[in-house]
């Protein structure tokens, strides 16, 4: 679609007063179709809301003015039949649209400027000498902001305070040190990760590692994991539990493959086949998978990096029967540009359905991939859409057709 050559007005998508309707090749019925397609697209709601959270996840063009905008542009809302969505500025320009002069989609926003400052701060926390913690004042000075302002934008962007971020990073460094150098002593690993004294560390080790450092280093050798395999409407299901809670729910066609997957995930743990009492727990998980809306009232043992944990928390906040795009999840955790990392975190999820990564779809509503097969994803979403408002979903999944 080429924009109308008539709109040479350099003040961009300010609509021309009393503009004469542009000569359209489109017939009235295809205009109505286009309007319907736009209105059914979840991105249209973000345009109507001038959503700052949607920044960076898409752009929209207006056929009658020939310009394209950020989702948050303050200009008058265009008519839906004239709107097309684009995945990038380059896409919009390739389709013949010019950047809006008002929202300047090519220029970094305050949000992305903040994101750049925060990214830089994260890198300096990560690269600091292990025995020297970076102070808030140093970070703020580096960003050219006051300490309180910097603290606020850092928390907004990462969901963590700089101090918590440093602690999470240090814990990761410790895990790496314990995993990476089998010859170093546990005490060396604790110091090299940047903990000031090992006695102080031991006090918090359960919190940081979920177990003592030596036990962790043994790959959780002493960690007992009970598991059992059952059947549900989605095929085979493996449920595993550590002493802290359910640590894996895996789905598949082949029970043996599920056991191998469990072995890979907990390489050195003690895997123990479930007994009768455990079968009862599996039945509870199966009932939950069949009707996710009921919720799972069992403690979960969630293992992942700080970033993965943030993504998974955001997934757990998506109610049954609803969906979000990878870009929306990225925006919700305050990392709007980390769409690919969000998709990777979804793929790394070991707790099928309990951490509902099946509720994440592509921005155009397409199902995209699922760690346990896209057919299972479709079935789960169908299951969830049964009890509550099926009409919404019918229209959401019938979307697409837009975007030039
Ligand atoms: Zn604009």
Molecular structure report:
- It is a single chain.
- The chain has a four-stranded mixed sheet with strand order 3-1-2-4.
- The protein contains 17 helices and ten strands.
- The protein is an alpha/beta fold and 404 residues long.
- The protein has four domains: 107 residues, DNA Methylphosphotriester Repair Domain; 108 residues, Arc Repressor Mutant, subunit A (Orthogonal Bundle); 71 residues, Methylated DNA-protein cysteine methyltransferase domain (Double Stranded RNA Binding Domain), CATH 3.30.160; 92 residues, Orthogonal Bundle (Arc Repressor Mutant, subunit A).
- It binds zinc ion.
Quick recap of the structure?
45% of the residues lie in helices and 11% in strands.
Topology record:
Layout: H1 28-40, H2 42-48, E1 59-62, E2 67-69, E3 83-86, H3 89-94, E4 98-99, H4 110-127, H5 136-143, H6 147-158, H7 162-180, H8 186-192, H9 198-209, H10 213-217, E5 224-232, E6 235-241, E7 246-252, H11 255-265, E8 270-273, H12 276-290, H13 306-316, E9 324-325, H14 326-332, H15 339-348, E10 360-361, H16 374-385, H17 390-397
Parallel strand pairs: 2-4, 5-8, 9-10
Antiparallel strand pairs: 1-2, 1-3, 5-6, 6-7
Helix pairs in contact: 4-5, 5-6, 7-8, 13-15, 14-15
The chain binds zinc ion.
* SSE sequence, one letter per element: HHEEEHEHHHHHHHEEEHEHHEHHEHH
Structural class: alpha/beta
Major sheet details? 4 strands, mixed
Sum up the overall morphology in one term.
flat
Strand content: 5-15%
Amount of helix:
40-55%
Quickly name the level 1 CATH class of the largest domain: Mainly Alpha
Just name the CATH architecture of the largest domain.
Orthogonal Bundle
CATH superfamily of the largest domain: Homeodomain-like
Radius of gyration (CA) equals 25 Å
């Amino acid at each position: 679609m080429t924009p109308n050559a008539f709109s040479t007005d350099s003040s961009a998508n300010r609509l021309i007063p009393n503009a004469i309707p542009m000569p359209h090749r489109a017939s009235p019925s295809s205009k109505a179709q286009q309007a319907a397609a736009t209105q059914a697209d979840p991105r249209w709601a973000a345009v109507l809301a001038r959503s700052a959270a949607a920044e960076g996840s898409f752009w929209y063009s207006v056929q009658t003015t020939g310009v394209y905008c950020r989702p948050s542009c303050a200009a008058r809302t265009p008519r839906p039949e004239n709107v097309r969505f684009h995945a990038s500025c380059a896409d919009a320009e390739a389709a013949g649209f010019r950047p809006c002069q008002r929202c300047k989609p090519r220029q970094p926003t305050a949000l992305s400027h903040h994101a750049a400052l925060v990214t830089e701060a994260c890198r300096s926390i990560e690269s600091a000498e292990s025995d020297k913690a970076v102070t808030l004042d140093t970070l703020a000075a580096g960003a050219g902001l006051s300490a309180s302002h910097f603290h606020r934008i850092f928390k907004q962007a990462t969901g963590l305070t700089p101090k918590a971020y440093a602690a999470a990073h240090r814990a990761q460094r410790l895990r790496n040190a314990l995993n990476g150098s089998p010859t170093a002593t546990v005490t060396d690993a604790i110091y090299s990760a940047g903990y000031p004294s090992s006695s102080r560390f031991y006090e918090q080790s359960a919190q940081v590692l979920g177990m003592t450092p030596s036990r962790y280093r043994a790959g959780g050798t002493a960690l007992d994991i009970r598991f059992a395999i059952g059947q549900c409407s989605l095929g085979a299901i493996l449920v595993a539990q550590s002493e802290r809670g359910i640590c894996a729910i895996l789905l598949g066609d082949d029970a043996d493959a599920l056991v191998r997957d469990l072995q890979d995930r907990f390489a050195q743990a003690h895997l123990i086949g479930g007994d009768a009492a455990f079968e009862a727990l599996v039945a509870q998980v199966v009932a939950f998978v069949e009707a996710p809306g009921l919720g799972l009232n069992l403690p979960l043992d969630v293992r992942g990096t700080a970033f993965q944990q943030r993504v998974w928390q955001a997934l757990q906040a998506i109610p049954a029967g609803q969906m979000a795009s990878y870009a929306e999840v990225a925006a919700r955790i305050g990392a709007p540009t980390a769409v690919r990392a969000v998709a990777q975190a979804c793929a790394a999820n070991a707790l099928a359905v309990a951490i509902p990564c099946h509720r994440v779809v592509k921005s155009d509503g397409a199902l995209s991939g699922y760690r346990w097969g896209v057919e299972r994803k479709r079935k789960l979403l169908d299951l969830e859409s049964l009890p509550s408002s099926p009409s919404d979903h019918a229209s959401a999944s019938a979307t697409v057709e837009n975007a030039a």
